[in-house]
Amino acid sequence: MNTRVVLITGALTGIGRATALAFAQEGSRIVISGRREEEGEKLVAELRTLGAEAEFIRSDVRYTVRRASGRRPAQLSR
């Protein structure tokens, strides 16, 4: 099993989206996550047209960070 599986959070825009597209062009298996279901499914379709295996998981990692640290994400940089 040589095919990489890549998990990209925040994949729906900006650097996350560009990263997903780059890995798709390399033939990676991709799991993307983000907050917006419709946009996630659209990106999955785009990744699949590039020949990648792709799945979307709706998630919001901001809440995970808060639970794990006991602090809001904005407070973590302080």
Explain what you see.
By secondary structure, this protein is α/β, with parallel strands linked by helices. It has a single domain, classed as NAD(P)-binding Rossmann-like Domain (Rossmann fold). The chain is 49% helix and 22% strand. The chain has four helices and three strands, in the order βαβαβαα. It has helices spanning 14-25, 37-49, 61-69, 73-76; strands at residues 5-9, 29-34, 53-58. A three-stranded parallel β-sheet has the order 1-2-3, covered by helices on one side. It starts with a strand and ends with a helix. The mean pLDDT is 84.
| Count of individual beta strands | 3
Instruction: Give the CATH level 1 class.
Output: Alpha Beta
For this structure, what is the CATH homologous superfamily? NAD(P)-binding Rossmann-like Domain
Structural class: alpha/beta
Oligomer: single chain
Order of helices and strands: EHEHEHH
Report the helical percentage. Answer: 40-55%
Number of helices: 4
Please state the CA-atom Rg, rounded to the nearest Å.
14 Å
Share in β-strands: 15-25%
Per CATH, what is the topology? Rossmann fold
Report on the biggest sheet: 3 strands, parallel
**Assigned CATH architecture:** 3-Layer(aba) Sandwich
Compact summary:
By secondary structure, the chain is α/β, with parallel strands linked by helices. It has 4 helices and 3 strands; from the N terminus they run βαβαβαα. The protein has helices at 14-25, 37-49, 61-69, 73-76, and strands at 5-9, 29-34, 53-58.
